[in-house]
Request: fold
Amino acid sequence: MSEALAHSLFMVGRQTRNLFREPIWIVMMLVQPMFWLLLYSQLFRRVVELPGFETDSYIDFLAPAVVVMTAFFQGTWSGMGMITDLDRGVIERFLATPARRSSLVFSQVLRSGITSVIQGVIILLVALPLGAGNGGPLGWLVILVAGGLISACFAGVSQAVALLTRREATMIAVANFIGLPLMFFSAMLIDFDLIPRWMQWAARFNPVQWAVDAAREPVLASPNWGLVGLSLGLLVAVTAATSAFATWTFRVYQRTL
Amino acid sequence: MDAIVVEGLYKHYGEVEALKGVSFAVHPGEVFGLLGPNGAGKSTTVRILATLTMPGGGRAEVAGWDVVREPDRVRRSIGYVPQASGVDREATARENLTLQGRVQGMRGSGLRARVADLLDIFGLSDAADRTVRGYSGGMKRRLDVALGLVHRPSVLFLDEPTTGLDPEARAAMWEELERLAGQEQLTILLTTHYLEEADRLADRLAIVSHGVVVVQGAPERLKRDLRGEAITLELQDGHGNVAAATLGELEGVHEAALDGRLLRARVENGARAIPGIISALEARRIPVASVTTARPSLDDVYLHFTGRDFRSEDEAGREEERPR
Reply:
């Protein structure tokens, strides 16, 4: 186990080093969330005046959701890194060494989570001067944990898709196919009580909604910490499940060699 | 004890039988060549020995460990240089080598020193801290080989080490590999579809064709066992098929084969056979531009044991290769 963890950290080290070598990507990945944070929050500023909204600051309400949204998309697209490594023979090179098999997959999940936490910090730093207090340090911590978990959760799914299809085109199709629906079947942009009943029902089974619940609750006037705990717990459980699934697909991939 | 033992190795991909019972053994410290055209089963064999692919049948041992039952022991004993480079192009040579050493269980100053040594040996010291993206083909290939050597393996697998290199880089790589081969404790298994590469580097070789080993032995012995001489006739124009048929009818002339305007055959004694050949061709009004004789080459060995011309089969094999 400790060897698997050590190998995962070596691999994560490699991936983050490559990422920081081209810091332009970190900026590029933050362009979209900035639009949501800076423009969308202004466009819908007065939405909080609707009865049923539990806050009177939309930016305060939106910032945690932008962190979650960015993390969610980061996760769904993380399989592209695996496909590049498969195409370039990097994975095969490691397969001929004692590198733990699980570390080759798990490092990608870990890398996705870490990237999302870094992005979350930047988003919160931008949101702060715009008036998003976001529940103080404890709230920030919960937001970042929720972001890291939702990213890792869908990274597991994305790695599995990458390993089963090994094609960029399929990967792009799947990421697009699950991305927007899961985002809209959640209370990301609006209060949960204001979305239609049947969508509420669907949202309860949506991990993205769990992350939104966990990240947003500390911001509200009377936070429900029980819901925060439950949501984070569910996210940990699903992340463990998707990581295990991704590790299993790696064995499927190995059998095709 | 042999460094590599392969017995009746079998592998199929769907309907395609890649290996149909390959057997050979490699002694410690020797350079063993697997020679054959594209698609013959060389890479599949190496991939099984490097624990990447599970065999469908048969048995293989590397450095004393069974590749199916003890894959991790095998992985600690081998270096594997794949046909297509597996380097991380966004990382530097030093970073690539360091990570490779870490997953092999090396660390600290020992690892740093080993990495610096390898960079030096393979002439990459100046480029060590640049990302591999900017490397030339030859530099990248040298790094591939260095990656396989970080943990001082006892067995090194080189899958087509010079394919895709320009002649200059290939010559440099051959010198590098000859130096490596000089190290007594290192056993090298090399696959190649270049006859001259096998001839120059391998102590012994096995010719692989359509998933089986057709012959094995030292290159010199294989050539010596083909008695007689190779004869090459350059035809002035056309009539190649008629000429080949004519030669086939002559006594003491074997394995006549046409390659463009060149007609090759094997004879017991060149000086005695040539007058008869020329007059037989002239009787059919086929003019001959030139005649040369030579001691048999590996090309002739290949033709003799497979009944096929190496170059044309290599082209055909390229078409059949399984898509990756």
Q: What stands out?
A: The mean pLDDT of chain B is 88.
